[in-house]
Design a protein that fits this description.
about 240 residues, alpha/beta, Rossmann fold, 6-stranded mixed β-sheet, 6-stranded parallel β-sheet, 8 helices, about 30% helix, elongated, Shikimate dehydrogenase
Length: about 240
């Protein structure tokens, strides 16, 4: 039995297990299983591998996309540049980290882009934000990172004024704000300055329409949740695990 799985903590709402279980059934892929491995600390990762020597591939989610890197033998070029891993391939006794979030995000965002979508705000600074920034660089879209506290490369939410909002027409939420069960939360941005020229993208997919997206829709913006990104990154992971 070939085993694949997901590490993270907690894992009460796992898209990946449902996706791959359905994929194996629909495509008649036998002898494969996908499990969830909620590990409370990344230090438990070596023990998990020892318990499951049949692992062929893993996905990685919050909070381990960056923490897992020291435990790997090598990284793909993109994962090394991004500094975050969401996919691990086990091959010939080596553990190699990849980032398929960047593929999922870029390929789901690109069809929505208009000529006036030429500057972005990235809300959040975690592992997912790093993949988003890398994709925006690939798409030649300059971006500004927004965090709770201003830093060398970030601005604070309190700095977002009318001019910033009008000139940054793509706004991407990479934080968990608004994710089930905290569906009434949303990033603290001045939504009154959003217009029909804005594109709001939320990496959260549960609920399908977060408060962030609802507030954008109310202002006439185009909106997109993270569901297609998840499907595309999962398929990209499957391709990586099965490369010959």
């Amino acid at each position: 039995m070939k085993t694949y799985g997901l590490i993270g903590y907690p894992l009460s709402h796992s898209f990946s297990k449902g996706f791959f279980t359905k994929k194996f059934e629909a495509e008649n892929i036998t002898g494969h299983q996908y499990e969830t491995f909620p590990i409370p600390a990344i230090t438990e990762f070596p023990g998990l591998l020892a318990q499951h020597p049949d692992l062929c591939g893993l996905n990685v989610t919050i909070p381990y996309k960056e923490q897992v890197i020291p435990y790997l033998d090598e990284l793909s070029d993109a994962a090394a540049r991004i500094g975050a891993v969401n996919c691990i391939r086990f091959k010939d006794g080596r553990k190699k980290g990849f980032n398929t979030d960047v593929i999922g995000f870029r390929n789901s965002l690109q069809p929505l882009l208009q000529p006036y979508h030429n500057r972005a705000l990235v809300l959040g600074t975690g592992g997912a934000a790093k993949a988003v920034m890398y994709a925006l660089q690939e798409l030649n879209i300059p971006y500004t990172v927004v965090s709770r506290n201003a830093g060398d490369d970030t601005i604070a939410y309190s700095s977002l004024n009318e001019q910033m909002m009008e000139t940054h027409t793509v706004i991407i939420n990479t934080t968990p704000l608004g994710m089930y069960p905290n569906i009434h939360e949303c990033p603290d941005i001045p939504y009154q300055y959003i217009s029909s020229h804005h594109l709001l993208y939320d990496l959260v997919y549960n609920p399908p329409e977060t408060m962030f997206l609802q507030k954008g829709l109310a202002q006439g913006a185009v909106t997109k949740n993270g569901h297609e990104m998840l499907i595309l990154q999962a398929e990209a992971s499957w391709d990586i695990w099965n490369e010959q």
